[in-house]
Amino acid sequence: MFFLINSLRGNGAERVLITLLHQIPFNYKITLFLLKNEVDLKIPSNVRIISLEPKRFKKYKIISLIYSSYKLSKIIRKKKIVVHSYLFKASLVNVIVKLLGSKHKIVIHEHSVPSNNINGNFFLKVLYKIMYLNSSRIVAVSNGVKDEILNILKDDKNEKIVKLIYNPINIQEIEDKSKQTTKIIEGTPYVIAVGRLEKVKQFDLLIQNFPIDANYNMYILGKGPEKEKLKKQIEDRNLEKKIKILDWTPNPYPLIKKSKVLVVTSLFESFSMVILESICCKTPVVSFNCKYGPEEILNDSPYGIVVKKNDWKDFFVKVEQKIEEDNNWNDKEVRSFLDGYDIKNVLEKYNEVFNYKYFN
Q1: What is the tens place of the pLDDT at every residue in 31-65?
Q2: Residue among 112, 105, 84 nearest 17 (CA)
Q3: Which of 47, 54, 120, 140 could be cross-linked to 146 through a Cys-Cys bond (beta carbons 3.0 to 4.6 Å apart)?
């Protein structure tokens, strides 16, 4: 089995892939191609890693793209295999290799929101269509993402190649890991935000709108290019005692479990796996109604509240509301709610896209 992804940083798509790889039986030989040799996640021992990253000219994106495509082409050119790609750049390389004459089949796992990447750019829209039309299967992680893919394809005949499979979580593993000890400041209750420190997560606006008189603290867990700006912003508002940026950890679950509320403030999410992880940790969620995922997951459930996007005043009112509520969730009801997302059930839906014979 062959997989292709940009890197293995601790973001959503990467964690989904690793969760799947840990469930694939050990008698399968698995090869994982990385466009960038960054690994923050634990890889199963039966997975062989091949880096497609050039040793020189890493700063030049086009040269890196050409090099990665050429190297992958040399490895798989004459093989009758399926290559599963995650994220735009990896899927683009996958399709380039196909167009260069490779005999392999392509499965694109769409973990982004295409319209946000395209953003009115005609060239990118054409590029997306070329990618999708050269795929044997496209896995959409939410109904919203599936609708966007079909809108780009604009042909009902192509609907059969698009398969909706929600991102899986390993319920038992999350529950076990959430019980591990963690170094946190005891005493004052806190809310938590988890994600890569970049503009799309709107952590800058989260800090800007955080109530100075709040009787709780806030932790932002993650790493990324906005880290120093966010720390400076916290200092400028004299909120160092209230808000802290915590380094990313492969096990965020004890921190989520002890939090009063998980807050999600993204401009967009293809699915928002952290919402499921929070519910698994018995921590309620307050999220903006961004496309897509939060409303699709929470859907009037007792486990969280969806707020109109960028209505910060109402957002923090709802956070206070959730902090004050008694969180007496029934374990069986939580399990039942999450069951459809559990890796054991989701893996059954992946059987088709993992098996080459279905594409002949």
Answers
A1: 999 999 989 888 998 899 999 999 887 778 888 99
A2: 84
A3: 140
